[in-house]
Design a protein that fits this description.
The structure is a single chain. 34% of the residues are buried. Helix 3 (73-89) crosses helix 4 and helix 6 (135-145) runs parallel beside helix 8. A six-stranded parallel sheet has the order 3-2-4-1-5-6, sandwiched between helices. The chain has helices at residues 15-25, 51-56, 73-89, 101-108, 120-132, 135-145, 147-151, 158-171, 197-214, 216-225, 240-247, 253-271, 292-304; strands at residues 2-8, 28-32, 59-60, 93-97, 186-194, 282-286. The protein starts with a strand and ends with a helix. Strand 2, helix 2 and strand 3 form a beta-alpha-beta unit. Helices cover 50% and strands 11% of the residues.
Length: 306
Amino acid sequence: MKRLIAIVGPTGVGKSRLALRLAGLYQGEIVSADSRQVYRYMDIGTAKPTPQELANVPHHLIDIIDPDEDFSLAMYQKMAYRAIQDIHGRGKLPFLVGGTGLYIKAVLEGWQIPGVSPDPEFRYNREKRASESNIDELYEELVAADPDAAAKIDRRNVRRVIRALEVHAKAGKAFSKLGRKKAPAFISFIIGLTAVRDELYRLVDRRVDEMIERGFVREVENLLEMGYDLDLPSMSGIGYRQVGQFLKGELTLEAATQKIKTETHRFIRHQYAWFRLDDEKIHWFDVGQKDDLEIEKTLAEFLKSK
């Protein structure tokens, strides 16, 4: 069967760097599994590959929609499978790389995404509730309706909370119970990168400082000048929300920067709910203890196997 290499792990651990190295060694192409890098004009805050990196190794599913366009898990999965099939068809090795657990799982496990169409009125009413009361109340509604789905969704990700409630209401079944699976047409090998938590936080904090230095504030200003509202789902991600608060005078730049760091730390803890260290399907490597050569050796053994 065809092969696919997935590289997973928390934000800031070095997935992209490793993917570029391995793709260069094995004539590979990278399929992004990042729910924010799909948006155009959002480069610094999503830590997209540089133009040079994009030139060195072909990338897929980056810059494919505008910030005000709807995007769903089903759309992502369909595009990812199409990209993987295309890469295989040209005799190359696909690398699925990113920290969005929902995207990774949907592709690797062949989720059959529930065919529930969006309900604008349902979404409007829930969004109104979230803004008038608080996000926690909406999340608790999901906990009561579908605790398994709630355990895997960030309570501050209003869009995903509402989608899970929407599927539950329209399908009459829990979102988490609808996920039938169909094995994809490839064998996957999953590389997981991790680090001691304090070291991981240090790496993330340094990356946030670098984003600010590279012009992250100006990037958000440009988006606003182009007419993209801070209330858009695309702008709700960590970083854009806090810089938006700075631009509205609600936070100092220093406070906004610190808030980005704190929220990213919390998000990292949430990511480990998707990529569990005791998951035997994932070949884990601590970036502080093992070097790339050991990872390359493990991958080479997989690629040589039948």
